[in-house]
Amino acid sequence: MMSNMTIHVGIDLGTSTIKVVCGSQVYMIPSIIGEPNPGWTGMSLDKSLVNNMVLIEEDQEWYVGELARTQSEVKRPLASEGQMKSAEETFIAIKAALGLLVDEDEDVIVSTGVPVATSMNVMKNLSRMLKGQINIEIRNDATNEIKSLTINIKKTLVLPEPFGTYYMVLKSKGEETAVDTVIIDIGHGSTDILTMYQGRPMRTASGSLVEATDTLTSRMAKALGEKTGAIIKPFDLMMTIKKGKDTVMIGGQTYSIKEIREYYAKQISKIIIDEVLRLISTLPPDAFVEYYIICGGGAYNFGESIKEAIISGKLVSKPDHVVIPENPVLSNAMGFELVAKTQ
Ligand SMILES: Nc1ncnc2c1ncn2[C@@H]1O[C@H](COP(=O)(O)OP(=O)(O)OP(=O)(O)O)[C@@H](O)[C@H]1O
Ligand SMILES: [Mg+2]
Description:
The strands form four sheets. The protein has a ten-stranded mixed beta sheet with strand order 3-2-1-10-12-11-5-6-4-7. Strands 13, 14, 15, 16, 19 and 20 form a six-stranded mixed beta sheet that branches. The radius of gyration is 21 Å and the shape is globular. The chain folds into two domains: about 5-160, Nucleotidyltransferase, domain 5 (2-Layer Sandwich), CATH 3.30.420; about 175-325, 2-Layer Sandwich (Nucleotidyltransferase, domain 5). It contains nine helices and 20 strands. Helix 7 (about 260-280) packs across helix 8 (about 300-310). The longest helix has 23 residues, at about 260-280. It has helices at about 65-70, 85-100, 120-130, 165-170, 215-230, 235-240, 260-280, 300-310, 330-340; strands spanning about 5-15, 15-20, 25-30, 30-35, 55, 60-65, 75, 80, 85, 105-115, 130-140, 145-160, 180-185, 190-195, 200, 205-210, 245-250, 255, 290-295, 320-325. The site of magnesium ion has 6 residues, from loops. Magnesium ion binds next to loops.
């Protein structure tokens, strides 16, 4: 094995899912860490490390991602109100993710995105922690196998989440990365809007909204609950939406959700568009937004109606300047991997 190989990792720290991309390795990890809840080890059918991750620290163990989501009694989401809460807790999840990707003691360059609303302080702390020699020890809770390694992080970039998609899309279009662009990243718990002006994020024209995919499932759950008298959890509707189903089964009866989904998707798209218009109205008069890019899992539900509104509002000169990337959920992490490679 060659020593001192450098691997480039792109990470997108979403409020619901952390995405990690490194070459052909792609992982999606729920953004949750939790306290261990031992018992019944080894019964899980799924013995993959990604779904059974325990991070071993000097004084404590943490369940990370799917294992925390399903097994921890005490668990903490890494983000709330559209921002990463603490650099320390985020660091735990990132260490586990790097442990998944890296097999030997290797050099690593990391480029990671955080929600737009994340405080400068958390961003600074995170980039400070993600530097130099880091020991990682992770255990597979299903097999009890332990993986220990030391990585050397040569460089870490902490950037606003939607920047990854911006970088990837402009590169693929052969554009200079200085073209004024608005990126609308519709996630689970928040929508992030990043405005790039003269190649730099424009703070005053960027921001985030709580309206996102979660809003759609919550409103749908409420409406369905009123119609059927049953208690419906928004989370269960998320799976229905993801699978593209038009009906749900409640108390043995089938109900169509097509109309209410379309109704609320339109309402939420309007809220997002209004915010985009408000933000771009703060741009200096010489700014000329050439591209609008829509990404995040919400692009599946709101992408087309937002695209239509941008085109019919004549915000772009050509319809193909409103872009929804092929894989809107992974596009940030994929773009960050490219960013890491330029370092
Ligand atoms: N193929 C799909 N079809 C429909 N909806 C989808 C699809 N894939 C993901 N979603 C929805 O998108 C949401 C997750 O999007 P995403 O992974 O972009 O969020 P996130 O990055 O974790 O959150 P945030 O960007 O708010 O920090 C979920 O609510 C999920 O149900
Ligand atoms: Mg996201």
